[in-house]
Amino acid sequence: MAASPGAWPIMTTSRPTDKALPLSSTSESSSSRGSVLSPTASNNRSPSSSPPSSRGHKCHDGYNTGPIASTSKLTLDCTSYGYGDVTAFDKQRADEYPSLKGTHYLDYAASPPVAPASVLAFHAALSKTLYANPHSRSTASVQTDIDIARTRARVLSHLFGLEDAQQSQEWDVVWTSGTTAAIKLVANAWDWKRERASLAYLTRSHTSLVGMRGVATSRGASVSCLDSTRDLITSDAALIGYPAQCNATGSRIGLDLARRIKRRSPKTSVLVDAAAYLSTSVLDLGSIPLEEAPDFVACSFYKCFGWPTGLGALIVKRSSAHLLQSDPYFGGGSISSLSVSSPAWVHPRGSSGASNPTCHERIEAGTLPFLDIIALGHSMDTHNRLYGSHQRVSAHALALTDYARSRLGQLKHTNGSKVVSIQHNDSYERCGPTIGFTLYDAAGSPVGHVHLDRLATMNGFQIRTGGLCNTGVWTRAFEYTDQDLLRLHEKGRACWDDEEFDDEGRPLGVARISFGASSSREDVDSFVEFIERFFLESWEEMMLVRARTPLVEKGQPQIRLGTMTVYPIKSCGGQQIPEGSSWPLSTTGLEHDREWMLVDAGTGRALSQKCYPRMVLIRPRIDLITRRLHITAADMPALNLPLDEPTCDASTREAQLCGGLVSTQHVDADLDRWFSTFLGLECQLRRFPSGSTTSSRHAHFEGPPRALLLSNESPFLLISSSSTKRVNEWISNESGHSSTSPTPISSACFRANFELTTSNAEPSRVDDEDIDLPPFFEDSIDLLRIGDEFFQALGACRRCLMIGVNQETGIKTNVPFNTLARRRKSIKGRIEFGTHMIWRKDLSRSPEGVRPSIKVGDLVSLTTQGA
After folding, report:
1. Residue 867 — very low, low, confident or very high, per pLDDT cuts 50/70/90?
2. What confidence score (pLDDT) does residue 692 get?
3. For the chain, does the N or the C end have fewer beta carbons within 10 angstroms?
4. How confident is residue 198, by pLDDT bands cut at 50, 70 and 90?
5. Cβ–Cβ contacts within 10 Å for residue 406, how many?
6. CA of 851: how far to CAs of 247, 563, 775, in Å?
7. More confident residue, 638 or 493
């Protein structure tokens, strides 16, 4: 889809935001006194060339969904990357961030990894220093209050360039729980009833900034959502909000927009969301005249240092503090006096004229999170020791970003089409260390962001995909209207779900990688190689994806139902029905299939093998003759439950399943202890209530909703043994001449109800030489007959990471998922294996009065699409 034209014009200022400092050029071992990367670590280190400032960093792309330009060099600027000493940087990274070993962390925009040294330093401080509530007057309280004041000053100096004492006196730091709370504070304290009390904000703002409109509209103010900075500059709104850096794309505005707004309309107030910008750069308030600076700046400190979380600030220009009205609610520390009884009165702090409180004294009600503030100081100390300054981090991260953009821009399919399309602004010059992008296949169709996220996770990459809490970015990129969004909502689409495309094939999200202080070149190179391996299509792969699945031809061996499996407890082991045995059918699936599930006792969320692979070692088995459910697990006493008697606890409770809520019944507290002991977490056994209305919460096929119990998408899932055999052939071929042969996968890893095979083939074998069915012939099934019962195909089964769990041992592997990702991608890029089915009860040929059932070994006939 074509994208909306760029809307953020080029803006420049005379003074760079990031002050370049010399980079070290020699290697030393790290010590507690300093870092090999910090210019303060040694007095004898000779400086090398200065890094480029982020203010002068060029972003080579415009904001659209077209291919990125290839104007950047494919070589990495090592005067900036690695802080001028790559060897020392690599060693420091390994020593200071052991949690990064074995993974590629590319989500610094969400939160950078925590340096354990900062936590250890805080622990040491707590061990020898007594900190106390600053509202008291004890020695410890007074010292804590002094440390809090010092940290306020450090925030202004370290992150906002206010190193001059006179300049810093013009600003105040109000502690909050984060950026969202800081923005909400302004929204609630603003006088929306005065003249011109209107709000304007940029479309491509974070949801937390957009959320101000809820307060504004509820209090009668008008709200404008504007696409361009030019429109913001000319807006007559009393309060204007914008992000210093777009959290989804990295496009930067910085402080220049505030300057232009203030020059045109000095009485207009400006709120800047600096959360994304401050992650690697200084928002230099000292670089511009005070009268042209924004009035309010919101930030979160974990975005900068990883820890502490739950602490942020609202930076307030003191001359604008009067614009924030006192909240009707008052708390400890924010008042001068109040009445005990009626008539009720209260005097806020400083209202008597006896004192002149600062903004933070007037607004900060209650005891501050003083230990978190102390912890922030230690995080800043560690950051300075490791890197020297925020400006040096900026140079390092931007060098990597430029390198990553260039490498991704070079990726092309065999037919010459681009693989990566970066979200950016045509006319905007500066870019932060964040890349928002969409992948495209060789035919020009977008690849689903959920598919990318799952495959990245399986291969050790930590990235972000989805709406990125910035609806304006992906809706403008793919030309959605508000009416489109409303229709999607009415159809059940919501943030955080797994939907990737609308009915027209437009993406419902984007992907993002981002860099920070400890990002490495290996992270970039490995990610590019990952994209090449799984998303860059050769001619052979292009034909494979688009080839019609071969139909079953006449004269081939008779097809039969080789294996039938019931899964009584969702995500636990399956019960394979013996050869020649029958099993009853219902419209919701095989009888008792996924009728029970385990949920987290604390959150109510359904447990899954994806997170708890040990679940597969729980073996439930239903005896239809005795009407009992038997459950076994290694080193645990066997359980025996009646199927037809009411549960001990018949109360109905909601549980979270696939992003929705389902009604379930709690079975028994003693059973909960059994499962909790085996899995090592507090959980409960729940059952779908007998006789209740069946669920269809996650059935996304065309037509009316399908009745389900606790299955994810459909009542039945079908595969063929020939398809499993082909997957094992691919795995073997891709292993090359490795000395270690890959372990063949079993059909059980696909957790199907039905596995079809031929009459002369042994079911569930992965090495049978007599299987003559074409691999993946089930893709073309329309109507299927098993014995006397008919089943209708709904669509292909989209696969997730759970197929990598060995159903006998619970051991995880990425081999099946990676193999299918290369070989079994749909046109939309989804990994598919197997076919969803429903039972056509209306076509049943079972005798009157006989309950419909099918038998393992039953003959199978089918009608293919178009036949």
Report:
1. very low
2. 52
3. C
4. very high
5. 21
6. 58, 21, 33
7. 638
* Token reading at 416: 């010459």
> Edge-to-edge strand order for the sheet containing 683-687?
596-600, 683-687, 660-666, 652-657
Confidence class for position 553, pLDDT limits 50, 70, 90: low
Which pLDDT score, from 0 to 100, does residue 194 have?
81
Fold of 712-864: M1 Pyruvate Kinase; Domain 3 (2.40.33)
From 516, 253, 529, select the one nearest 396 (Cα to Cα): 516
Residue that the structure tokens 């052979």 belong to: 540
**Cα(148)–Cα(364) distance, integer angstroms:** 13
Query: What average pLDDT is seen over the chain?
Result: 84
Q: What is the DSSP letter of 778?
A: G
Question: What six digits make up the tokens of 805?
Answer: 């769990």
Instruction: Report the pLDDT value the prediction gives residue 347, as an integer from 0 to 100.
Output: 77
Element housing 512 (H / E): strand 510-514
Contacts of 20 (CB under 8 A, 6+ apart): 50, 51, 52, 53, 391, 395
Please state whether 758 falls in left (phi above 0), alpha (psi between -120 and 50) or beta: beta
* Nearest partner of 447 among 434, 460, 459, 456, judged by Cα: 456
Q: C-alpha angle 433/530/516, rounded to 5°?
A: 20
Q: Per the structure block, which two tokens stand in for 502?
A: 């609308």
Residues of the chain with CATH 2.40.33: 712-864
pLDDT digits (tens, 9 = 90+) for 763-803: 444 444 454 688 998 998 899 999 999 999 999 998 888 89
* 469 is a catalytic site residue: yes
Structure tokens at 36: 């090999």
pLDDT at 540: 57
Q: Comparing C-alpha atoms, which of 26, 32, 823 is closest to residue 385? A: 32
Average pLDDT, integer, range 367-394: 96
Token representation of residue 812: 């995880």
| Residue intervals in the chain for CATH 3.90.1150.10 | 56-116+389-539
Q: What single string gives the DSSP state of each residue in 654-720?
A: EEEETTEEEEEEE--HHHHHHHHHHHTS-EEEEEPPTTPPPB-TT--SSSSPPPBSS-SS-SEEEEE
Average pLDDT of the residues in 501-514? 94
Query: What average pLDDT does range 816-834 have in this prediction?
Result: 85
Catalytic one of 469, 683, 797, 800: 469
Tally of CB atoms within 10 A around 43: 6
CA-to-CA separations, 814 to 254, 451, 742, 867, in angstroms, rounded? 42, 14, 12, 37
Percentage of the chain lying above the pLDDT 70 cut: 80
What is d(CA 29, CA 755) in angstroms, rounded to the nearest whole number? Answer: 60
Residue predicted with more confidence, 54 or 794: 794
Q: Which two tokens stand for residue 798?
A: 């989209």
Tallying the residues shown for the chain, one arrives at 867
Domain 56-116+389-539 has CATH 3.90.1150.10: yes
β pairing state of 223-226 and 199-202: parallel
